[in-house]
Every structure is written in structure tokens, then in C-alpha cells.
Design goal:
Layout lengths: L1 H31 L10 H6 L8 H32 L1 H16 L6 H8 L3 H25 L3 H9 L4 H38 L5 H9 L4 H29 L8
Helix pairs in contact: 3-4, 3-6, 3-8, 3-10, 6-8, 7-8, 8-9, 8-10, 9-10
Length: about 260
């Protein structure tokens, strides 16, 4: 156990050292070769933008984080609920699942103009776009997890006259958790992408929207800072999912 902890700490230290080395190389490399600031600013210039009130980093970050979390949580709830309905009804699965696959194939960016017409600009529209990207991975992994349950366990619940809801709560959901978390981890990446796409095409607030605004003035340091904050929000969400998985799912049952 101690050996594993040492190895884990060693890997973390190496990861931190690599990131620090990359930043130092970036900082001194840009200055050494005199790269124009509007092309590639040094990290120190990027960090300095955080103190400039005109960018309103805090409120824009809150908006983007809210869009990511809103769409992500909605995708988890509806993804699991839909997978459960499909596991209960083969007829529903046969009729609806092919349609969902077709809808998932539609490029979400191409739907942008239609989404604006239907729902106008705003956070709710971006939450919907984020949801549309996150929903399918969670649905697929949950369906697979529900199908992996031992039939004997389900037969036992049925023999004891358990309801479908009891079957789901006590047998199917715990057994499918490793698969659900696998889909949730994939969806964290898509959630960030969904919020960014939404702000590019249908927003008047948020970090990605701010990037579009500062692009016109070639304010590259502010664009880099916006990308950095978006990345940090995504990393925090992913770490939260990993922590939740560590608490809920036994180590031997976790999916990579």
C-alpha cells in the first residue's frame, strides 16, 4: 500500500514538474526569440490580465461554469432515466434508440442557428447545447451497465415480488455504476466543449463569448487566460467525478 502511494506521489510530482518546465520554456523562449505579444504572449502577461477589471473574469467564469454544470447534470439525470426505460421496455428501445442515434449524428454546431431561433440567446440555450453533447455517452454506458447485470439476481428479485423500481435501486444501479462513471468522465470533456460552442454561437456572456470580443483587438493574453479558466473549470469537474467515483465505486470495479 505504501509502495503504491509513493508511486502515485512520484507520478504527481513528475506531472507538476513537467507543467512548470513547460511554462518556463514558454516564458523564456518567447522573450528570447522576441515573438510578438499578439502572436504568443509570455505566461506572465497572461497572468497579469486576471487583475484587469474590464474582463470581468469572475462573472464570466460563473456563467460558463453554470452552463457546463447545468447541461452535464441534466445529461446524467435524463441519460440514466432513458437507459432505465429502455431496459424495462424492449419495444421502446427498438423504436426510440435508432432515432436517438440519428439525432446524435447531427453536428451540434450546425444546429446553432436553429437553436437561436427556437430559444434565443442566453444561458438556458447553452445548457441545452451542452446537454446534447453529454447525453449520448452517458446513455450508452448506462445501457451497457444495465445489460451486464447477472440475470440470476434479477430473477431473485422477481421471485421475491420486488418491483421494477426496487430492482433498479438495489441491483441494477449499483451494478451499473462503474459503466455510468465511465460515461460521466467522457461527458466532462464534452460538457466543456458544449458550453464553448454555445457561447460562440448563442451567448452574450461567458468566457468563450469574451474570447470572441477580445479577438477583434488582438488581445491574445486575454484569449489565453479565457482558455486557461475554461480548462480549469473542466479539470475541476473531472476531478470531482473521479472523487465521487472513488467514494461510491469499489476499486476493483472501476472502469478506466
Amino acid at each position: 500500500m505504501r509502495l503504491k502511494r509513493r508511486e502515485a506521489n512520484k507520478h504527481r510530482a513528475i506531472a507538476v514538474a513537467v507543467h512548470i518546465a513547460a511554462l518556463l520554456l514558454w516564458e523564456f523562449g518567447v522573450r528570447w526569440f522576441e515573438v510578438p505579444r499578439f502572436i504568443l504572449p509570455p505566461p506572465s502577461d497572461v497572468i497579469l490580465t486576471i487583475t484587469d477589471a474590464k474582463y470581468d473574469w469572475f462573472n464570466n467564469s460563473i456563467v460558463t461554469a453554470g452552463e457546463i454544470l447545468g447541461g452535464y447534470i441534466l445529461a446524467i439525470i435524463l441519460g440514466i432515466a432513458t437507459a432505465l426505460l429502455f431496459s424495462w421496455s424492449k419495444t421502446l428501445s427498438t423504436l426510440a434508440f435508432p432515432l436517438l442515434i440519428t439525432l446524435n449524428m447531427i453536428p451540434k454546431v450546425a444546429l446553432g442557428p436553429l437553436v437561436i431561433v427556437w430559444f434565443s440567446y442566453g444561458i438556458n440555450t447553452n445548457i441545452l447545447i451542452t446537454f446534447s453533447l453529454c447525453y449520448f455517452p452517458i446513455l450508452l454506458t448506462t445501457i451497457r451497465g444495465l445489460r451486464e447485470i447477472e440475470p440470476d439476481l434479477l430473477d431473485l428479485v422477481n421471485s421475491l415480488r420486488g418491483t421494477k423500481w426496487q430492482q433498479f435501486i438495489y441491483i441494477q444501479l449499483p451494478g451499473a455504476m462503474p459503466f455510468i462513471f465511465s460515461g460521466m468522465k467522457v461527458a466532462t470533456i464534452l460538457a466543456v466543449a458544449g458550453a464553448v460552442v454555445g457561447e460562440f454561437i448563442a451567448s452574450d456572456r461567458g468566457l468563450a463569448y469574451l474570447m470572441i470580443q477580445v479577438q477583434a483587438s488582438l488581445d491574445t493574453p486575454a484569449m489565453f487566460m479565457a482558455v486557461t479558466l475554461i480548462t480549469l473549470i473542466g479539470m475541476l469537474l473531472y476531478l470531482a467525478v473521479l472523487l465521487l467515483e472513488h467514494i461510491i465505486v469499489p476499486q476493483d470495479a472501476r472502469k478506466s
